[in-house]
Input
Amino acid sequence: MNLNATNIAIIKRLLGGRNSRSLKAILLKIEAADLSKLFSLLNDREIRLFVDALMAVDKASDALKELPPPNLIEIFKKIDTQKLVTLLTYSPEDDSSYFLSLLDEEEAIQILNLIEPTLRKRLNQLLSYPEDSAGRDMSTQVFTLSSSLRAQDAIEEVRNRTQEESVYYIYCTDESGRLVGVISLRALVTAPAETPLSEIMKKEVVTVKPTTNSQKVAELVSHYDFVAIPVVSETSELLGIITVDDVLDIIQEQATADIYATAGLQEDDRVYTKPKHSIKNRLPWMLLNLMLAILVSGVVALFEETMSQLIILATLNNIVAGIGGNTAIQTLTVVTRGLATGDFNFISYYKAIFKEVRVGLTLGIATGTCAGILVYLWKGSAVVGAVICVSMILNSLVASSMGAIIPILLKRFNRDPAAGSGVLVTTLTDSFGFFSFLGIATLALKYFT
Amino acid sequence: MNLNATNIAIIKRLLGGRNSRSLKAILLKIEAADLSKLFSLLNDREIRLFVDALMAVDKASDALKELPPPNLIEIFKKIDTQKLVTLLTYSPEDDSSYFLSLLDEEEAIQILNLIEPTLRKRLNQLLSYPEDSAGRDMSTQVFTLSSSLRAQDAIEEVRNRTQEESVYYIYCTDESGRLVGVISLRALVTAPAETPLSEIMKKEVVTVKPTTNSQKVAELVSHYDFVAIPVVSETSELLGIITVDDVLDIIQEQATADIYATAGLQEDDRVYTKPKHSIKNRLPWMLLNLMLAILVSGVVALFEETMSQLIILATLNNIVAGIGGNTAIQTLTVVTRGLATGDFNFISYYKAIFKEVRVGLTLGIATGTCAGILVYLWKGSAVVGAVICVSMILNSLVASSMGAIIPILLKRFNRDPAAGSGVLVTTLTDSFGFFSFLGIATLALKYFT
Output
């Protein structure tokens, strides 16, 4: 059932009333991902009742984890501590540890202390993994069976032990809980009844460590078209699995991070982020850019005398810098994206740089010639036309080389190419653009007028 | 087994020799996705032999489809027509239609004519779906069973009919081939032997049409955490399924398209693209930018007289435009990404615009004040310092409003906000930046000096 105006109205009415059975019935029919959209339509009292109702139908954690973090934090503030403890106790461990990670430290510790010790220890363990690691992404509910079971008993176990529709692989462990193989449900179903799992399982399993970077996990899963990848400890103990739907989220987040990086934005700066937080986030970037702009102006200032003599230079200099900037950004984008998506499996760095420079130079010759002619027609000065043409060609050479080389170097030195390149390349290109245009113009003024 | 220097050397040696059994044995052990990386290390003769060997172990289409399109086209040129026909005949239909879509039209028709009529008709059908539609992405090998079968017979069918490890859902059809339900392998395994599928299947199935946009399919699958989604005709006939690994590819491509759009790049312009193709792709964008830069210069030209009187204005004007541009791009990026990832499910357009303008204005006041003070210290002119401060504040107001409003408007009118916004917003901000700075300076010169 989809969420629509009618059933939103019904749910809101039922939240106020006492008929919890009808409410449960309707909530059971709607996907958790859709239910999460309801929160923004409810007042504080309704939110508390809605969380209760979701907990009663076992959909609270699924619905809550779909919310943007700031909204979720707001909701947690509205729920009383004891309710939160209950939620964290009955949610899957990985969800609970995610929820805890959103609370401020003091509150998290307070709540952890109210949770029963075994679970508390396990949650603390999950929280100890670094952010953006497999340990944080993994689900700890894994269906495991002993590799010594016979196929038919294994099927019986599947029948009895799991309500989950999404059991695709069964992980086989030895007596000490070490992962020794994996078997697809299909292979299990089609195996002769008496065969032990150890004979039908696939023994070479691709695994990751809990500290493996999320990005790396996403690459593995998408490269091999896996549905899930197991996370194991140093001693091969099975800790959890990361499923392909987690990987979808990782890839979406990574794309956002890449897109954001070139604009100097932090990943948690979204349309719904509080203004204060966004300002704090963006201010350092703006100040950095201000400093760089002043530096670039310093280059322009060197030529104030030349500009005084021929004021159209002041009018035209941003054309050179602007086109250079565009060349740089196009090259940068292609190379950075190539680094992110593995395109460099199919071409060497050297060849890619050489190609980008060829492309940049050709575009520089084309746009430089156009600009030269247009400026000549507009301002009537052949010398200025020639100066703009030559400086644009030089500038695209610089822009495309910088745009291609800088991200590759950053990657070599294990820096994020998306984050650092943009501002570096643009500043260099702008400075060089102004310098070459005004510099060549100074020489031209000296010899041709 | 992973691909490494040792087994690359072994494969290359075996390709030259006659021992096809050892070659097959080694190829069977390596994942198709890894085998595809080998192509770039082989010469023409080896490539032909390698394709033969891959076909012999039934891995040709899986390995080939991992290659970047231009590389794949090159390889197809090296294979003789009859071999290509064989490859297309024995590959999964969706892979074959993808391969055909890469060939130029004449060649595709020639090859289609050599393919046996039933398959040809089906391939033509697949090729008739629009690009970036579910019909192009779907796999046509779907495991279907009649809904009247009993659970135990269904398991028998799974055993007999499929070698695929990746059967997660079984689609149930009625006598006329219409999709009537879906059942997970787990539910099938755990159902009592005599139950007909129609009693255990889930009857409410989320489906898409073959013409549904790929982006929409990706949203559905990732929103609901599906492993696969069925594609049905207008009459509910089951045409194929799209699996989550296809969705991973769609999301990667979409991220690339979004990142590329703001830089005016086409999606097929990659590090390995031929220079000629990249130049043709990028030239229109560069020329558009040249025209816009000249337009912006037209604004600056209005103030040549003012600049002649006070040449430091020419030095400083790019600071105002630069900082405005950064404000615009940050706002634009946050809003565009919000539109792409569904963040607007949790905030209204109106509130988001208001927030961005508040943020932009605050940043403008901060950077404007800094710039004013620095310019006063650098150039010793309080008037110029005040002018730069005021114009930067005004410009950030304009930049953040434009950056927030334009992508939302484009989305409203069903245009791609990522593609159109950047250049529009930057041009407006640059023009306004120069206009306000030089305009206010002109007024200031008139009254304060």
Summary: Chain B has a mean pLDDT of 89.
